[in-house]
Amino acid sequence: MPTEIMHRPEDYDREFDPDAYLQYYFSKEAIERGTRVSLFALPVFAQILLQTVPENERQSLLDIGAGPTVYSALCFRDVVKRVYLTDYVNKNLEILKEWLNKTNPYDWCPTIRVIKRTEGGFPPSDDELNVIEEHTRGIVKKGGILWGNVHLHTVVPELPIKQVDVVLSVFCLESACHNFDQYINCMKNITRHLRPGGKFVLGSVLEDEAYNSGRQKIFSLLYLTEEMIMRALGEADIDLESVKKYVLEEEGVMFLMASKRLQ
Ligand SMILES: C[S@@+](CC[C@H](N)C(=O)[O-])C[C@H]1O[C@@H](n2cnc3c(N)ncnc32)[C@H](O)[C@@H]1O
Questions:
Q1: What is the CA radius of gyration of the chain?
Q2: Tens digits of per-residue pLDDT, 169-208?
Q3: Which ipTM was obtained for this model?
Q4: How far is the CA of 201 from the centre of ligand 1 (A)?
Q5: Which domains does the chain possess?
Q6: Which residues contact 33 (CB under 8 A, 6 or more apart)?
Q7: Distance 95 CA to ligand 1 centre (A)
Q8: Start-to-end CA span in the chain (Å)
Q9: Closest residue by CA, ligand 1 atom 18
Q10: Contact residues for 92 (Cβ-Cβ < 8 A; gap 6+)
């Protein structure tokens, strides 16, 4: 048996394959094989924001480490007016731009169907799916597709700090960090974009050290416990009393939403 190569955080630009990732996690077959837990958690958080935050306080959302995926924008399409999708890997940004310009054949309808199922109501028609995707394109056009690096003080250099209403990051930090000190630092970097009182949404793998990014290309993960993540959030000005979290032990993931402290 060949030994699998373990890719490291510094290998993303060279080794991450957006097509393999989408195929493995978001193709019709993958979605039917086992639903992505993100597609359960994010619509629930979106609904909470819709019901509890006044419209003028939820104008913008920044997804850090979106990869080639647009599901965050799909889930929050009725919550905010502008979505910024960002990633470190230029190949991912190219796929996102192709989606925006409708030149990428990738089919997001299976994902939208699952999001709609979580949201409740009747199964959507094909026309409804198209309307949802078009509306989502509109809010990403108002925001943008931008490069970012969680190791930078200003993660997305084109965006000012302390301005965004909702910062979201799913399965990114544990991919990008070698050790816990780096993780804490990156957590501070990403929440710096959030305005005081803004909402932070995090999806994280728990207690694992590697994942398959598609076609058996394995990347390392920083081993994290729930306690470590809470400690990092506390150091990054997140109000720990405000944390609403879902821990899915079987899946080895945690999703949470919390507020940034007012000062
Ligand atoms: C496991 S994928 C998650 C993608 C997407 N958020 C999702 O939920 O499917 C990890 C992502 O983190 C990005 N990433 C890795 N290092 C990064 C860094 N230093 N700064 C920003 N993003 C990074 C990768 O390019 C990749 O898109």
A1: 17
A2: 999 999 999 999 999 999 999 999 999 999 999 999 999 9
A3: 0.99
A4: 15
A5: 6-260 (3.40.50.150)
A6: none
A7: 14
A8: 55
A9: 149
A10: 16, 18, 66, 67, 68
